[in-house]
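Limitations

Structures in this collection are predictions, not experimental determinations, and the ligand pose is part of the prediction. Treat each record accordingly. The example that follows, with nicotinamide-adenine-dinucleotide as the small molecule, is included so readers can see exactly what is and is not provided: the inputs are given verbatim, and the output is the predicted complex.
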Amino acid sequence: MKIAILPGDGIGTEIVAEAVKVLQCLDLKFEMEHALVGGAAYDAHGHPLPDSTLSLAKAADAVLFGAVGDWKYDKLVRPLRPEQAILGLRKHLGLFANLRPAICYEQLMHASSLKPELVAGLDILIIRELTGDIYFGQPRGRRTAVDGHFPGAEEAFDTMRYSKPEIERIAHVAFQAARKRGRKVTSVDKANVLETFQFWKDVVTEVHAQYPDVELEHMYVDNAAMQLVKAPKKFDVVVTGNMFGDILSDEAAMLTGSIGMLPSASLDKANKGLYEPSHGSAPDIAGKGIANPLATILSAAMMLRYTLNQPEAADRIESAVRSVLAAGYRTGDIWSEGTTKVGTREMGDAVVAALITTKTITKS
Ligand code: NAD
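Predicted complex:
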């Protein structure tokens, strides 16, 4: 099992080191190879996704990714900005489905900005289409307006588009995932305003005919944003386009208490995947040793489950994380009165210790 390890920038290096530590204490053999990506790769090679990094990612069975970006790169031309590395990896690896579970751990119920009774037991899966929509649509750019409200003024424009096969394949991912969960899919669109999303709605409805055992509801994105904070537990699987999914998955993240807790998987059609925490490189806390590594550790667990076919190892990591939370260990982002504040490395050590304990219990 070959894993490409791409820590990236900011807290990326700190949190990925903890996930690697956790993987290394399993009874499994991995070949792990590190490479630079994002701003770190730009500094060393002049490009956020050098050919050597892309080749490694292509050759590996799975990619464990930290995060990229820093304000200091904001003045670079867009193709050289660190965030382009993620877009490039998604595109070149054909990663079209982004799975982001939003689970509210019992112990962290009070860290949510919502009332505990609204989030206790929350378990939503947000499925975001990753390679289409306005983020990739051409043409895009700046020009002088020839019409609109201010002809002759400078303007910028992007193109929102989805093809039928792109919508069909993400709809299949959503319906199949729902079959393993609560058998309900909410397809989020903006069909009342956007042609692209009327088409989205029509195609999802068509695909649904193959899944009569799964309930399908359609919801406008503005309502979905509202329902996520009003009654989040009524969702099971949410499927939506690239831009709406980007926004709603961060909103769902906050329901759980901290973005530092949420893993994600981006899969291709053969379930090869890139695994990364849902958060960014957090330049505001980088280098301080206080970042929460659990989202990255849980991403490694998802990697074991979805790509490397090691569900038992994935279960072990997830239950180690639960027992660490139950023991009261908290990084600053999830800390509350009466719990023990720990740093990034101590949190990683606690998960490793919990894994070793469960191994000992299993053997004895
Ligand atoms: P961010 O997710 O990096 O940070 C948002 C807030 O959450 C910050 O206050 C940060 O300190 C906190 N936070 C994030 N992860 C945390 C963790 N593990 N533990 C504790 N606190 C955590 O988002 P941002 O500030 O909007 O963006 C920062 C940089 O990250 C930008 O350059 C952005 O482009 C980039 N970014 C990268 C990715 C990615 O690599 N996939 C995703 C989003 C943003």
